[in-house]
Amino acid sequence: MVNPQTTMMTHPNLLTSERSQALLADILPGLQRLDALLTEAADLAPQIYGPATAADRFRGLYVGQEETARLLHQQPGASRLFSNGHGTAVSFTTTSSRLGRLQKAYRLTPFDLDIILLALAPELDRRYERLYAYLQDHVGHRWPTVDLALHLLCADVADRLARRAHFNPDAPLMQHRIIHLAPESDSRPTSLLGRFLQLDEQITRFLLGQDGLDGRLTPFCHLHSPASAHPALNTVSRQALTRLLDEAWNSGAVARLYFHGPSTAGQRGAALAAAAFLECPLLNADLSRVPAQSITVDEALPLVLRYAWLYKAIPYFTGLETLSPDAWAALHDNVRAQRDVRAQCVGRVIILAGSQPWPGAADEPDDVLTVPFTMPGYEQRRTCWQAHLAGRQRQLTDAELDTLAARFRLWPDQIAQTAVTVDAHLRWQIAAGHREPTATPTLADYFTAARAQSGHDLQSLAHKIEPLYTWDDIVLPPAARTQLHEICRQVIHWRQVLHQWGFGRRLSLGKGVNALFAGPSGTGKTMAADIIANELGLELYKIDLSGIVSKYIGETEKNLERIFRAAANANAILFFDEADALFGKRSEVRDSHDRYANIEISYLLQKIEAYDGLAILASNLRQNLDEAFIRRLAFTIHFPFPDEASRRQIWATIWPADAPLGDDVNLDALACQFKFSGGNIKNVALAAAYLAAAAAQPIGMGHLLQAVRREYQKMGKRISDDELSLVPRGGQHDPE
Question: According to CATH, what is the number of the domain 644-725?
Fold first, then answer.
């Protein structure tokens, strides 16, 4: 091993900026003291290890007889490297000193600070590694051990024994994970004296002025600069939150807040607003993204809280719904521990956000204050729309603003994102030449962008249908068509009737619009729902109830609960297909399965009545539905099997304008001879089109009759060639 210089080392000017110079001045006195201790220890080393050892090229790699004899003659536990000349530790108590902040917050002793500096030194200058290896008589021991620290800092064996307490699990350095004790090898047991002192990465970065997130936090944390935001709170709640934050910050108390509401409730905007009010950055820790393979939630929580304190940020925890019971317990323990304000090692505000109620601990209150987040009302949404549009130099008419605010129940952050999305899409449209350079966004543009802001949770539970059809595409009796228009009008005038006229104050349930579409398969029930969605500019989600009903007791209710919870703020139309799979007549209770089947129906009735949006249920057999259920629906619309005139109209409207029809196509004959529903007619027309395309011919009667044969086969029916040959051809293909 190379014998290092034994004179006082000078520190190179590693930090050049004004801030870095201040940080260096903070730790320089301690490093100068450490240098003096190491210099004198190096002077003593030849006496301890023998005068010839400095020249031994294999020193530290083996233990010879001479060294063994020397070790046996030393007093047990003696501090071999200690010098009385530099026994007084440096004190760091100024508020501007980062070491002083650590000392005050974690109640560290001067001896603790010496340990910190001993572990920090190699991060500044690798020459310390060579010094430590020399003093520990081992070329591989380049980091200080507990043994080296005690030899350098303790005068005698009694002092060394007493100082071991600084490495106990409940000692400040260990309890707050400031120092980690690493073994020499994972495969061999190591005594306390043989463990290496490693300064926590977060503390190292703090002392050296590297203020970004360390590698353990970057996978699930994001630091937001303080910025103004639009919290999803009404004026009274916003003022109460502001007052609470102000009192906590000025009094030194710790405010632990739980933002309770749906995952899209804009809690993040409120947290950003709180950070802006306190002029602090916001540290968002998404606990659902904690990488389980490298760190546990129990280990991550103290790191987040400590970073927030070190850099005066507000910790904001999200993703709580994904936590395991053990992780929840760890969260409770960490939140509860922050009541010890005297430790001063946490911020004065802690914010958590989740969609479930805060599960307070039964054994000890945790004093977490729940801040409820409810969907902003119409007036608040309209004001928010107006503010964001004005901020982007956009303008809609009063009627358009009314429609936008009433039709879409969005949180303020969703409204803000919608405004941004519309402008971005418009720029692309202009760049692509699809819009004029002077074009401005239309109400339809805002409808499209607003639909994209919601319904994400519902997509995993239901099938999203892109509305394509219009009123011209459906063939229905006048009474049924009138009822469909009435459904649309109820949604359009929902705000006026319930809020302006006050009906909403008299209704606890039934504020939404619900309807039953009953009729045979293929009669247009799904198409009617599509048309309504297109007319209202809302998303349409189709839910197959036959796949939701479970034979296991309680599972059906859980499936329904997930759907309605996801749909609560989806701004979508729920279309329940195959409704009679669940909503059959409630049976006489003969056993437990009958009883639970009836519970399922009652549960769904409650959910339908409580749903504030538009829910449509489709059933092939109305007579199978429970009458109590039907009475609670606002609309019951019958979709009859089409008669000959209706079938003729469907045949005439099924063809796209570009589809070539042959002269021999006879729509009157098709409508008369084949008693098909609209769905069957669509299938036949499409199949005939493929047959004609394959033959490179216009769509002719032969193609249609071949498609009719295939449709009968699918229906389990038979039709003979003679029957098909009798179908008249020619001249009746003009669409009406």
Answer: 1.10.8.60
